[in-house]
Amino acid sequence: MTESSTHLLVVDDDREIRDLLTRYLTRHGYRVTAAKDGQEMRRYLADRNIDLIVLDLMMPGEDGLSLCRAVRAEGGPPVVMLSAMGEDADRILGLEIGADDYLPKPFNPRELVARIKAVLRRASTPTGTAQATAGAINFAGFVLDQAQRRLTDAKGEEVTLTAGEYELLVALATRPRRVLSRDDLLEITRGRSAGPFDRSIDVQISRLRRKIEVDPAEPTIIKTVRSGGYIFSPEVQAP
């Protein structure tokens, strides 16, 4: 996917910010549509092919959190969330409800472009050594199909994953029974694009556990290694 063919949807109630982002992203070769609220966002998602949403958190009426949650529930495109609230707790909350990345205001527009590119890259291609083993993987009754970027459970039903959750699962499943630190997982999935104290790995692990573990509080698939990181414990095999 090239920038010129990539369609971004900017959702922000501040007209000045919408206009600035539209102009800046257009200059970088993206097709850009701007929406002032959730109602416009839904209309554009329904009748246009949107590849990524740049979504403001604080908006009157339906805020960015509820809109992001709805996008995730409907299997919509990746979301980069913007917010004037830069505290860790706010960032983690945004990631927990399904944002693929989070950027606090004020921000450098060049960083926004870099994060958009990183999210789109994770959404469209396998990363790291997973690219060399892009077949299907069986584990604990699940099938992780890297060619179609799909996870199905024992009943054959698809488990909806965000781009970040998918890449994290691939990183773990292609390195079974190996302790991977948070830094290892950030390096594999994001190329160190996150900050040194980024907690998004923990958030995504928690979300993955809720989707694939029988009891997320007592995980048997993705186990925590004290002071070490995480380990993917089930037997893994090709179908």
From TrEMBL:
Where is the PTM 4-aspartylphosphate found along the chain? 56
Residue ranges constituting the Response regulatory domain according to the UniProt record: 7-120
Citing just one GO molecular function, the answer is:
phosphorelay response regulator activity
PROSITE patterns cross-referenced by the UniProt entry: OMPR_PHOB, RESPONSE_REGULATORY
Mention one GO biological process in which this protein takes part, according to its record.
regulation of DNA-templated transcription
Q: Which InterPro entries match?
A: CheY-like_superfamily, OmpR/PhoB-type_DNA-bd, Sig_transdc_resp-reg_C-effctor, Sig_transdc_resp-reg_receiver, WalR-like, WH-like_DNA-bd_sf
Q: Which GO terms describe its cellular component?
A: cytosol; protein-DNA complex
Q: Which residues bind DNA?
A: 134-234
Q: Name one Pfam family in it.
A: Response_reg
Main location class: cytoplasm
Task: Output this protein's name.
Answer: Regulatory protein VirG
Q: Which superkingdom?
A: Bacteria
Give every OmpR/PhoB-type domain span.
134-234
Location relative to the cell: Cytoplasm
Q: Which UniProt keywords apply?
A: Cytoplasm, DNA-binding, Phosphoprotein, Transcription, Transcription regulation, Two-component regulatory system
